[in-house]
Amino acid sequence: MLVTDIPTLRPTAAPEALVAPLPGRGDQVEMRAHLLGTRIDMRALTGFGDPETVELQGAGAFVFRYGAVVIVGATSAEEAGILAQVAPHASDPPATPEIETARIELRDDGEETVFADGRIRLREATAERLLLAATVLARSVVLARDELRIADAFDRIEPLLADMREHGRAHLPIRQIMRQIGSVLSAQHRVVGRARIGEKPDLLWEHPELDRLYGRLEAEYELGDRTRTIERKLEILGDSAEWLLDLVQDKRSLRLELSVIGLIAFEVAIGLYEIASRWPH
């Protein structure tokens, strides 16, 4: 029996990020991830290209369609200019800025790894290595945003849960309960399926030698653990939304029952009045 190699097919989806080159500035540079919104219109950007075709010299700006911009090796003026260029094309900007910072350290004689103090050691500042580190930082700031949104949703439903614990029922009016349902569903919609954080970056298909480095970056920033925690909390929020809907239906059913009882009582009262009015005095 003959065995032949079967080529692995690389995904043909649009690139996860675009990049613009910046002047190189030595063997230690800062990488900063900024969250600008929930989505960036990549087609509206000028001066950015596919990381596979743009030549970098140790510095650049990466723009991710799910709302993050990662800038490496830039001056303060360059960074401000890039953010000003991209921000108008970002939708749903966050109320508070989310920023993640790391330091890129280039050493051709050391092992590529990541340190707890925020240093990322690379053998060379190639486009794929910088893109890999930028992808992890971008996903980390997206997770931070999602964690805040979910925490806010839990804060909104906490008064209802406390009311149920203390009194055995919710005293809030139906309209307010419906607002809570809306906030829960909004949190679910805005979090689910944004950045494919649980999946490996597409560039690892072309550069499997970077798989170990990605594993270390993912572990340091706890992308997997944070993603699973968010998924569990989303399930709880989904159950909470169903419970709130049941609560609204129960309240409406009770209103209907009380209305029916009121109508019956009114008809009985009218009937008694008519009987009493016919009774001889």
Keyphrases for this structure?
single chain, 281 residues, 2 domains, seven-stranded mixed beta sheet, 6 helices, 9 strands, elongated, disordered N terminus
Concise account of the structure shown:
With 281 residues, this protein is α+β, with helices and mostly antiparallel strands. The chain has six helices and nine strands; from the N terminus they run βββββαββββααααα. The protein has two domains: 17-125, no CATH class; 142-249, no CATH class.
Characterization of the model:
The chain has about 280 residues and is an alpha+beta fold. It is built from six helices and nine strands, in the order βββββαββββααααα. A seven-stranded mixed β-sheet has the order 1-4-5-2-7-9-8, with helices on both faces. A two-stranded antiparallel ribbon has the order 3-6. Strand 4 and strand 5 form a beta hairpin. The longest helix is centred in the C-terminal third of the chain and has 56 residues, at about 225-280. Mean pLDDT is about 75; it is low at about 1-15.
Largest sheet: 7 strands, mixed
Structural class by sheet pairing and helices = alpha+beta
The rounded Rg comes to 29 Å
- pLDDT < 50 runs, ≥5 residues: 1-13
First-to-last CA distance: 114 Å
Task: Quote the beta fraction.
Answer: 5-15%
Tally of individual domains: 2
In percent, how helical is the residue content? Answer: 40-55%
